[in-house]
């Protein structure tokens, strides 16, 4: 309620003609405080809708191509081509977003990528030669990093409130895990219940709609910073070793996915693997409540220990033990990624934030591809059933070693000094 101002008069205190608003009390829950800021709910909805298809496109393409051509090898090669080209174009598109603004770049880039997905759908439906599939999937590589754009908005809104920014980063990581957990399931259901192209079609509509909603929220869009002569974010001190850590971290995720699918080898493989994402989502939300963040090397040390849990579970031969191990292993993922992305925001100039986060995603994708290939080799040549689960543990130990040796997770970089 507004409180009236009182002024002294000869007859005593009297009401002044002006009223003073009592400051509104902010919610105690840190997540509710995030969304009490004007405009945050709207752009979060758009970002969520835009990111859900990121977990759908790959699975949908594999099912769609395999159903039409009868070859999972071809389906895997086509999707891998899209990822490879995207790892090159992603930072370039992010640089344009930094230079010209989110709305001006993201909308046409998304429209072009969606067009590529629809053309790929038509090529598969008409069973065109395989080279046309590879050529078309390269067109989809203009996909903007919607998660990075959402994080850039939080970084702009809470640039003077590190606690709120930490909570926002934790929330964003939880959203990522949720989308990559639900996306493949939704794609598989649509492709099997309706028709093989249904997953791609739905994902394209959701992606374009989400980016349009996100881009329409101009009040929370970071302003375009003036051009600088700083060059690539790779030149920022500490950035190169941090990307090396992200590369090794990606190998953890890629190898764990492949070796788990090879070990379980059945319809329950997907739900079992999803437990890792569920554990990460829960841990990310809890980590967002913490007032103090852990150092990156502390998170990686915890990840190295917890990644051994699936190995122990698989060694027992029990599927339930493996499922529990994956749930525990996932609990180290979100805190590590939240801390790593927070470091990106400290190391990279604000004018290059989207490009810096796109480089981190590129390093992760390269690591995922390397881990997938290594995990696949281990699954085929394993001397014992649980052998493949040594790969994620080794990758986590490598990430920890790189972080410790380079000092990228030390106090100076952690605090942004």
UniProtKB/TrEMBL annotation:
UniProt entry tagged with the keyword Membrane: yes
Name of the protein: Putative MFS family arabinose efflux permease
GO molecular function (one): transmembrane transporter activity
Membrane-spanning ranges: 42-66, 72-93, 105-124, 238-256, 268-287, 319-344, 356-378, 384-408
Keyword set includes Transmembrane helix: yes
Keywords from the UniProt entry: Membrane, Transmembrane, Transmembrane helix
Entries under Gene3D superfamilies matching the protein: MFS general substrate transporter like domains (1.20.1250.20)
Lineage of producing organism: Bacteria, Bacillati, Actinomycetota, Actinomycetes, Kitasatosporales
Pfam families: MFS_1
